[in-house]
């Protein structure tokens, strides 16, 4: 563990918050402990991705913001700093790679280069499975992946800020629409899936 801690650019808690019905819908972005605020794993990772801007919170505790020189990114929270998890879908909505395959170099470098990687487990015996609105059991690591994806969607406006809204549309929406139009013309199912 010390070798991982020494190499880490940041750290964050992964304290669960479970609603009365046993469903995991929210994560505390900040936790107060002995007079200090500690950020969640997802918030810490988003801050590293943005080159560690400071965070602040609203006077009515209704948002947590990442403050960059160009923009402030507000993430909605409640008075306990709880943020709703924007689940993208059922378990395995994100790509999984075997840790042993990565360590044994059986995964190409390109599969990880430029990516945000979460290391976790989905094995029942390791007790990191949750009940969520989109399914149960649901790997805890994927709960954080969903929250991080939601935060990154807010941060995606960086692209629009840099190159403008019209250029963003041209470089993202138009190519995807062209590919969607090509799907019915594909000679087989797998080629249609590849185009999607």
Notes on the protein architecture:
With 196 residues, this protein is of the alpha+beta class. It contains 7 helices and 9 strands. It has helices spanning 2-7, 41-49, 99-103, 140-155, 157-163, 165-182, 189-195; strands at 26-28, 30-33, 36-39, 55-57, 63-67, 72-76, 82-84, 129-132, 135-139. The strands form 4 sheets. A 3-stranded antiparallel sheet has the order 4-5-6, covered by helices on one side. A two-stranded antiparallel ribbon has the order 1-7. A two-stranded antiparallel ribbon has the order 2-3. A hairpin with a 5-residue loop joins strand 4 (55-57) and strand 5. The longest helix is centred in the last third of the chain and has 18 residues, at 165-182. The mean pLDDT is 81.
- Residues in helices, as a percent range: 25-40%
What integer is the average pLDDT? Answer: 81
Q: Strand percentage, roughly?
A: 15-25%
Structure annotation, total helices: 7
What spatial order of strands do you see in the largest sheet?
A: 4-5-6
Describe the biggest sheet?
Answer: 3 strands, antiparallel
Kindly report how far apart the N and C termini lie.
40 Å
- What Rg do the Cα atoms give? 19 Å
**What class, by secondary structure content?**
alpha+beta
Task: Indicate the overall shape.
Answer: globular
Taken in chain order, the helices and strands follow as HEEEHEEEEHEEHHHH
Low-confidence stretches: none
Strand tally: 9
